[in-house]
Every structure is written in structure tokens, then in C-alpha cells.
Design brief:
5 strands, Conserved Hypothetical Protein Mth637, Chain: A, alpha+beta
Length: 76
């Protein structure tokens, strides 16, 4: 997964069989990501941060979209 810039958009699908980056959606300019976690009490957001940190090897945080499937992620 190669990231250009300090912020990027993701579209999350929860309750999947495994955590994975599926593809880059050119039309929406966002990465599609599947997560095992369910969207209950922020579990999917925690799993997303942990997963992306491991994939990118940098710290990340969610800037917007805490309760949506579309999120803006910031690298730091």
C-alpha cells in the first residue's frame, strides 16, 4: 500500500472474513478496506488504526468519519 500525501480517504467494510486493503477506488479517490471487526462501540475504528499502522509502518489517526464508512485518515 503506497500512500501519497499526509491525508487520504478510506471506505471501510466491516464484519469481513479478514483485514485487507481491497483496492483503490479511482472514482471516489479512496482505498477500500475490509475489516473483521464489527462497528460496535468503536471496535472497527480501533481495528482500522491498528491495521493501517502495521501496513504503512507509520502512526495514523482518523480525522473525520468516526461514525461513517468513509473516513479521512492522517499520517503522523
Amino acid at each position: 500500500m503506497e500512500i501519497k500525501g499526509e491525508k487520504f480517504k478510506v471506505i471501510v467494510k466491516t464484519n469481513s472474513s479478514k483485514n485487507e486493503v481491497v483496492c483503490y477506488d479511482e472514482a471516489r479517490k479512496a482505498y477500500r478496506i475490509n475489516l473483521k471487526a464489527k462497528p460496535i462501540e468503536g471496535e472497527a475504528n480501533k481495528e482500522l488504526i491498528k491495521f493501517l499502522s502495521r501496513e504503512i509502518k507509520r502512526k495514523v489517526r482518523i480525522v473525520s468519519g468516526f461514525r461513517n464508512k468513509e473516513k479521512v485518515i492522517e499520517l503522523f
